[in-house]
Specification:
The structure is a single chain. The strands form four sheets. Strands 1-9-8-5-4-2-3 form a seven-stranded mixed β-sheet, with helices on both faces. The protein has a four-stranded antiparallel β-sheet with strand order 10-12-16-13. The radius of gyration is 23 Å and the shape is globular. The protein has 424 residues and is an alpha/beta fold. The protein binds pyridoxal-5'-phosphate (PLP).
Length: 424
C-alpha cells in the first residue's frame, strides 16, 4: 500500500489555508477619519511647510523612527521608490558600480540602473541566501560607489563584516529590509544596520499599507536628500538653500494620508505578527528536524529572524530524486510549497541584452565606452544552484494560521521526506 497522496493515498490536507490578513477595524476607522477630514494628501512640491507632507505622514514617520530606533524615517510610496531615492542620495551616477544581490526582488538591482549606474552581482551565502563580505569584496573596484544588501526572507545580511569592509573602501551601504521588519542583529533592528534602510509596505509584506515604503537613516544629510528626491527636488533646492544638487532630480514618491493612517495602525501590530511568525518557524524547525536530505533555515548567532519566508534546502546532490518530484509530492499532500525563488536577476533580458535607456545600451555601454560588465549564465553559481536545485520555500509562516494549520503543514512535509522511497 502506497502512503503518499501523489501515489493515490489520501492527502494530509484538503482544505485551503487561510490567507495572511492583518487589516482590521483599527485600520478601517483610521481610514474613515482621513476621509472625514477631507485631506487625503497634504504635500506641496515647493519649499514650504508642506514640503514635508501632512500631519499623518509626519506622525507615522516619527512613530516608525521611534519603533525601529533610528534618527530619521522618511515615508515613500513603495520600497522601489525608496531604493531609487536612497541610491540617488548616496551620490551614485553614470559610470559608477553598485554591488547587489542576484537573488531578490528585481527592484533591489534595478534601482542602480534607474540611477544610470552599473549593477555588479555578488554571489549569495548558501546558508542565509544574502550577499556576504567575501562575495562582495571580490567584486569591489575603483568604480564601486555603493552596496545594496538584502535581508532576504527576513534574515539580516552579515552587516558585522559588510560594514567594516565598506568603511575601508569608503562605500555607502543600503539595506533592503523589505522582508525583514522586526528582524534584529545583536538587538539592533533590520533597517538600522547600514547607512540607510529601505522597507516595503506593499500588500504582501509583514505589515502593509497597500503600497508604501519607508527609508531609515541616522544621517541628516541623507534623510534630507531622500526627502528632496521624494518631492520634486529641482523645484525646491533653491528655496531650501541646498547647494549640493547632484542627483537632485525630483520624483513624486509621496505617501498619502490614507496610507500613513493605515501604517500607524499596522505598526502597532508588528511585534505580535512577528511573534506569530517566530512561533510557526520554531514549530516547523522542531517537527522537521532530522529528515533525510532536508536542511532547515540557518539562523546566524546574534540574529532574530523576521521569518518572511521559511527557506529550506534540499540536498539534491546526495539524493536520486529530483527536487521537482519532492515538491510535487508535498503539493499533492495539500501543502502549497515552492521551489526556488526568482530567477537570478542577471538572467533578465535587460542584463542579458545590456539594454536599458535608449537602444545603445546606456548605462551598460555608451558611445564606445563599455562597463566591461557582462551577465552570463554561471556568474553567481550559488544563486543558480539554490534556484535550480536546492531551495524549497514555504510562505505559510504567519499569524493567520491556526495551530491545526501549522500542524498539517509540518505533517505534510514530514510525510513526504519519511517516504522518499515511494518517489524513486
Ligand atoms: C517587496 C520587495 C521589494 C519591492 O517593494 P515594493 O514596495 O513593492 O516596491 C524590494 N525588495 C525586496 C527584497 C522585496 O521583497
Amino acid at each position: 500500500m502506497k502512503k503518499l497522496a501523489i501515489n493515490g493515498a489520501p492527502p494530509v490536507r484538503t482544505k485551503p489555508f487561510p490567507p495572511y490578513q492583518t487589516i482590521g477595524v483599527e485600520e478601517k476607522n483610521a481610514v474613515l477619519e482621513v476621509m472625514e477630514s477631507g485631506i487625503l494628501s497634504d504635500y506641496l512640491g515647493t519649499w514650504s511647510p508642506q514640503f514635508y507632507g501632512g500631519y499623518r505622514v509626519q506622525k507615522f514617520e516619527s512613530e516608525w523612527a521611534d519603533y525601529f530606533g533610528c534618527k530619521h524615517a522618511v515615508s515613500v510610496n513603495s520600497n522601489t521608490s525608496g531604493l531609487n531615492a536612497a541610491v540617488a542620495a548616496v551620490g551614485v551616477g553614470p559610470g559608477d558600480e553598485v554591488i547587489v544581490s542576484p537573488y531578490t526582488m528585481s527592484a533591489s538591482a534595478a534601482c542602480v540602473v534607474a540611477n544610470n549606474a552599473i549593477p555588479v552581482f555578488a554571489d549569495i551565502d548558501e546558508e542565509t541566501f544574502c550577499i556576504n563580505a567575501r562575495t562582495i569584496s571580490s567584486q569591489i573596484t575603483a568604480r564601486t560607489k555603493a552596496i545594496v544588501a538584502v535581508d532576504i526572507f527576513g534574515h539580516p545580511a552579515d552587516f558585522d563584516r559588510i560594514m567594516p569592509l565598506a568603511r575601508k573602501y569608503d562605500i555607502a551601504v543600503i539595506e533592503d529590509c523589505a522582508q525583514a521588519p522586526g528582524a534584529t542583529l545583536h538587538g539592533c533592528s533590520a533597517g538600522t544596520l547600514a547607512d540607510m534602510g529601505v522597507f516595503s509596505l506593499n500588500y504582501h509584506k509583514t505589515i502593509h499599507t497597500g503600497e508604501g515604503g519607508m527609508v531609515t537613516t541616522a544621517s541628516d544629510r541623507l534623510a534630507n536628500r531622500v526627502r528632496l528626491v521624494r518631492n520634486h527636488a529641482e523645484t525646491v533646492v533653491k528655496g531650501m538653500g541646498e547647494t549640493d544638487i547632484v542627483n537632485m532630480v525630483g520624483q513624486n514618491y509621496r505617501m498619502t494620508e490614507i496610507e500613513a493612517a493605515i501604517g500607524s495602525e499596522q505598526l502597532k501590530k508588528l511585534s505580535g505578527l512577528i511573534e506569530s511568525r517566530r512561533h510557526c518557524a520554531n514549530f516547523f524547525c522542531k517537527k522537521l528536524s532530522g529528515l533525510p536530505f532536508l536542511t532547515l533555515p540557518v539562523v546566524r548567532p546574534g540574529v532574530e529572524h523576521g521569518w518572511y519566508v521559511f527557506a529550506m534546502r534540499y540536498a539534491h546532490a546526495n539524493s536520486e530524486i529530483p527536487r521537482e518530484r519532492v515538491v510535487a509530492a508535498i503539493q499533492a499532500e495539500g501543502i502549497p510549497i515552492g521551489q526556488g525563488y526568482v530567477e537570478p536577476l542577471y538572467l533578465q533580458p535587460m542584463y542579458q541584452n545590456r539594454v536599458a535607456f535608449g537602444p545603445e545600451g546606456f548605462p551598460f555601454r555608451w558611445r564606445g565606452w563599455d562597463s566591461g560588465r557582462i551577465y552570463e549564465k554561471g556568474l553567481c553559481p550559488v544563486a543558480e544552484r539554490m534556484h535550480e536545485k536546492e531551495l524549497i520555500q514555504l510562505a505559510l509562516c504567519h499569524a493567520s494560521l491556526t495551530m491545526c494549520d501549522i500542524e498539517d503543514i509540518a505533517r505534510g512535509i514530514a510525510k513526504v521526506f519519511e517516504n522518499l522511497d515511494e518517489l524513486r
